Amino acid sequence: MSEQRPDQLSRWQAQAMGVPEQFDLFLGGSRGSGKTHLLCALFLRHAEQHGERARCLVVRKSFPGLMDLEAEMKAFFGAVYGTALRFDGQKHRFTLPNGATVQLDQLEREADFQKYQGKSFSHIAVDEAGQYSSPALVDRLRSSLRAPAGVPTRFIMAANPGGAGHAWLVRRHALKESWQPYTDAASGFDFVTINATYLDNEFIDRERYAKNLIASCATDPELGKAWLNGDWSILRGAYFSSVIDETRNMIEPWACLPREEPEDPWADGPTSWRFFLAHDFGVSAPSVTYICALSPGAEGPDDYFYPRGSIILIDEETTTHPDDLNQGLGLTVPDQADRITRMCKRWGVQPRGVADDAIFNKTGSQSGSIADEFQKAGVYFHRAKKGSRLGGWETMRRLLADAGKPDMPGLYVSRKCQVWWQTVPALPRDPRNPEDVDSTAADHAADACRYGCLGNHDHPRIKVQFTM
Question: What is the CATH number for 414?
Fold first, then answer.
């Protein structure tokens, strides 16, 4: 906690206070910049202007984080109102002398949202918005943003780079030009993004703060740098950040498939290109399918030499919701199979490949398993035999790191695979196990890719019809 008094504002905080209330706010940047102090100042001004009609709500995903925020607000409002400030510890609600209220609450899952139905708030803030892997709950909270005539409403989000929600925040807010109004295409509301760093906060010991923050990320120094610099355009601290390089791993879309050559039955490994599907199933969550190519050690149609054993993701079929990378479209297996077979026909590839072992479990219905349903619809999957999750990630990391080496197999991903590029580079580490990906993030494209990396080597021969 800084020594900043309520009547003190840094230069950027004062500028932020001048943004008209008709604009919602996204407070990005780094840790230590003073976002919480600004939030308190915004609530205070709103409360003083509108009295008992001002009802403010701030949510966080976790209760421990909520307690930290509560302590900072107690110090802020206590310094302003002294003993006239009332605080209800059970409801986590501050009541100001003029009747205005500021409530803190947890919003972790869908069930938590039910308590806001029928309630109205004039200002709502989501602190640490990057902890939400999907914007669905955050967006739904807007339904409680309403106030009497003459009282302005405002929605505020505060977040730092990294975290499960990094990808959707980048798409919607984080990379917008600071201080310039824009319309968020997903929600239709007008926003202003403000990015500041700890260097903009003269009320803390900046040198000591930087040392402490870096020390707190000793096992992940790149994440510490991201928190300090507040640069959302680079993916420091992400699980694959040290092995993904667009100049090595991204390829331009192929116009056609490589020409097939006769296989040598005596050769150790493939002597011709092999093509197969890699699939991660979902209904409420996204389903992602890739056409993968396994190189025999030859040039592709782009005249680039792919070392033997290299894997190329050629095309992508996904049911990812356009506004939420962690939400599916709810399509049935036959509908998904239809989309997959149409993708395969465009390339002349048979709809066969590998998928998550879980789709082979019997569902108890007459259809048998999800894999059986796909087979009835003309798409044939066999088990990826994925083994340990960590082992699969390590295989994928090694292939990503070796891309571009002339004598080592690598993993190459077409620019056409948009969901892969939107999600995989930004995937955060599991906060409880840094060796794993945070499974609450949008990891569906990564899972499908992982199955492709693990499940192709013993894949049965797949014939391909070529159109040149």
Answer: 3.30.420.280
Cα–Cα dist 384/451, whole Å: 6
How many domains, the chain? 2
Inside any domain, residue 466: no
pLDDT at res. 465: 40
Rounded-to-integer distance, Cα 153 and Cα 124, Å: 8
DSSP assignment string, 307-325 = -TT-EEEEEEEE-EETTEE
Are the C-beta atoms of residues 350 and 462 closer than 8 Å to each other? yes
Q: Which strand (E) or helix (H) includes residue 352?
A: strand 352-355
Confidence (pLDDT) at 459: 43
Q: Which of 321, 250, 315 is nearest to 287 (CA)?
A: 321
**Ordered alpha helix ranges (H), 407-443:** 418-423
What sign results for the dihedral spanned by CA atoms 440, 443, 444, 448?
A: negative
DSSP, res 171: I
What does 223-250 look like in DSSP terms, one character per residue?
A: HHHHHHH--TTS-TTSTTTTT--HHHHE
CA distance 281 to 257: 26
d(CA 308, CA 76): 63
Q: Give yes or no: residues 213 and 274 share one domain.
A: no
Structural domain includes residue 179: yes
> What pTM does this model have?
0.72
Question: Do residue 28 and residue 152 come from a single domain?
Answer: yes
Domain end (from 196, 229, 262):
229
Q: Please give the pLDDT value at position 99.
A: 97
Q: Mind listing the pLDDT tens digit for each residue in 315-368? A: 999 999 988 888 999 999 999 999 999 999 999 999 999 999 899 998 766 778
Q: What is the residue range of 86's domain?
A: 11-229
Tens of pLDDT, residue by residue over 32-75, are: 888 999 999 999 999 999 999 999 999 998 888 788 889 999 99
**Mean of pLDDT over the chain:** 88
Low-confidence ranges of the chain (pLDDT < 70): 1-2, 217-223, 226, 233-237, 260-271, 364-365, 386, 456-468
Domain holding 138: CATH number? Answer: 3.40.50.300
Q: How far apart are CA 209 and CA 5, in angstroms?
A: 19
Q: Is 239 part of any domain?
A: no
Give the C-alpha separation, 13 to 33, whole Å: 9
